[in-house]
Specification:
The strands form three sheets. A five-stranded parallel beta sheet has the order 2-5-8-1-9, covered by helices on one side. Strands 3-4 form a two-stranded antiparallel sheet. Strands 6-7 form a two-stranded antiparallel ribbon. The protein starts with a helix and ends with a helix. The protein is elongated, with a radius of gyration of 25 Å. The protein contains 15 helices and nine strands. The protein is α/β, with parallel strands linked by helices.
Length: 333
């Protein structure tokens, strides 16, 4: 299931509090999607990392002065008697596929009985787990059959278009250079090999590459990127950055589109598409379209316009866009 559909599914099932498990590639954004859905719903969110938990983290026995042993519940559990926790929310067990069988047994009881050591969970809370697939050989264990039987398992697909749409949202602060590169080399969005020390993934590209750009000196970028996405992907991206940083001045293209030579190299075209879509506004949009009309083929113009619309939706209200959409209707519809 693609990211947008997954978010829609979680929102649809929240009213009935159906227990879910989201599985997918390492670093594919499973937990982030769950957290974002909780924010969109305006409900509470509690996240626990199961590989670092012990059975004792789910409660310990202690004497209560009545010659009996009682369970002391953890502070994270949204029990029905808690007034310091919202009445509705999502309880997310992250990386549950790496949890021991003992922890899986406790989780299975929470999923089915909605209790922890006899203490009832708030009716308004939904349990969602996330985990890697066993086939990825990323430390995932086999899930106990009775836990599997108590949840709906959904596999998250990694799609470049979905990631690009998310990355183009300004609040997510993903560098445009990276977006352009991955459109040029889509197979590198996720290229996981358990034999390698570092692998490209949506998470490692954003956290280990995009967030590092502009923080470290340019001559140190390769070594830093290599530690996040691996040697091969890092080398390709650094090479792409060199092209990107030597592009014609985007402002010159947007002010006088006929004065700039049209590139012939595909990587340069991808880079320029991203650079222009980052800078264009309602006043210069017509000039950007005019520049791409000089290209052989319309694909890079379509790419640049789609980038630009995601970043600046009001461009769709311009006369230039209306005319362009009519001219390119055979490619758009």
């Amino acid at each position: 299931m693609r990211a947008e559909k997954l978010a829609e599914t979680i929102q649809s099932l929240f009213p009935i509090r159906r227990t879910l498990c989201i599985e997918g590639i390492p670093g594919g954004g499973k937990t982030s999607i769950v957290q974002q859905v909780a924010e969109q719903l305006g409900v509470g969110y509690i996240e626990l990392h199961m590989p670092t938990m012990l059975v004792e983290d789910f409660g310990i026995m202690y004497p209560n002065g009545d010659d009996q042993l009682h369970y002391k519940l953890p502070d994270w559990f949204p029990s029905a008697d808690r007034t310091d926790i919202p009445d509705t929310g999502i309880l997310c067990f992250d990386d549950r596929n790496q949890a021991s069988s003992d922890l899986q047994k406790v989780l299975a009881n929470i999923c089915q009985a909605r209790t922890l050591h006899g203490s009832k969970m708030k009716d308004g809370w939904q349990v969602i787990s996330t985990g890697n697939r066993v086939s990825d050989r990323a430390g995932a264990n086999r899930i106990l059959s009775h836990l599997r039987n108590r949840e709906t398992v959904i596999e998250l697909e990694t799609q470049l278009d979905d990631w690009t749409r998310w990355a183009m949202i300004p609040d997510n602060n993903v560098n445009q250079e990276l977006v352009s590169f991955l459109r040029f080399r889509p197979n590198l969005l996720h290229d996981f090999d358990p034999q390698r020390e570092s692998n490209p993934s949506p998470r490692s590209w954003v956290e280990g590459v995009s967030n590092v750009m502009g923080v470290v000196p340019k001559d140190l970028e390769y070594e830093c990127f290599k530690g996040a996405v691996g040697e091969g992907a890092s080398a390709e991206f650094v090479g792409f950055l060199k092209i990107y940083r030597e592009l014609p001045d985007p402002d010159k293209v947007l002010s006088n589109p006929d004065s700039v030579e049209v590139p012939s190299d595909p990587s340069t075209k991808y880079a320029l598409s991203g650079a222009l879509s980052e800078r264009v506004d309602t006043k210069t949009f017509a000039n950007m379209i005019k520049f791409f009309d000089r290209f052989d083929g319309a694909e890079f113009g379509v790419l640049a316009v789609s980038y630009a619309l995601r970043k600046t939706p009001e461009l769709s209200s311009t006369e230039a866009f209306t005319k362009w959409a009519v001219d390119k209707s055979d490619m758009l519809f």
